[in-house]
């Protein structure tokens, strides 16, 4: 379950990257995605678990986030 005490108020915009706590369940992330779609069906966001700083270039490339 997402720790709602750790959630901050966000003004989520199209193209934003949302980082949820590492221990978030996949189903909770799906529910967050669905809730964001209800607010604005046209908005596209990326939701990942944990700190993005721990992803190396190879991991990002596999996800389609190519770095020069």
Tell me the major beta sheet.
Answer: 2 strands, parallel
Q: Enumerate the strands of the largest sheet in spatial order, edge to edge or round the barrel.
A: 1-2
The class by helix and strand makeup works out as alpha+beta
**On the 0-100 scale, what is the average pLDDT?**
85
pLDDT < 50 runs, ≥5 residues? none
Give the N-terminus to C-terminus distance in angstroms: 36 Å
Order of helices and strands: EHEH
How many H/I helices?
A: 2
Radius of gyration using CA atoms only: 13 Å
| Annotation, overall tally of beta strands | 2
Helicity level, as a percent range? Answer: 25-40%
Q: What's the overall geometry?
A: globular
Provide an overview of this structure.
This protein is α+β, with helices and mostly antiparallel strands and 68 residues long. It has a domain at 17-62. 29% of the residues lie in helices and 12% in strands. A two-stranded parallel sheet has the order 1-2. The longest helix is centred in the middle third of the chain and has 14 residues, at 26-39. The termini are far apart.
Which SSEs are present, and which pair or pack?
Blueprint: E1 17-20, H1 26-39, E2 46-49, H2 57-62
Parallel strand pairs: 1-2
List keywords for this structure.
alpha+beta; single chain; 68 residues
Summarize this, please?
The chain has 68 residues and is of the alpha+beta class. It has helices at 26-39, 57-62; strands at residues 17-20, 46-49.
């Amino acid at each position: 379950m997402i720790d709602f005490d750790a959630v901050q108020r966000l003004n989520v915009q199209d193209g934003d990257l949302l980082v949820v706590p590492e221990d978030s369940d996949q189903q909770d992330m799906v529910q967050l995605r669905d809730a964001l779609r209800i607010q604005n069906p046209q908005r596209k966001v990326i939701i990942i678990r944990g700190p993005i700083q721990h992803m190396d270039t190879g991991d990002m490339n596999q996800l389609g986030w190519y770095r020069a």
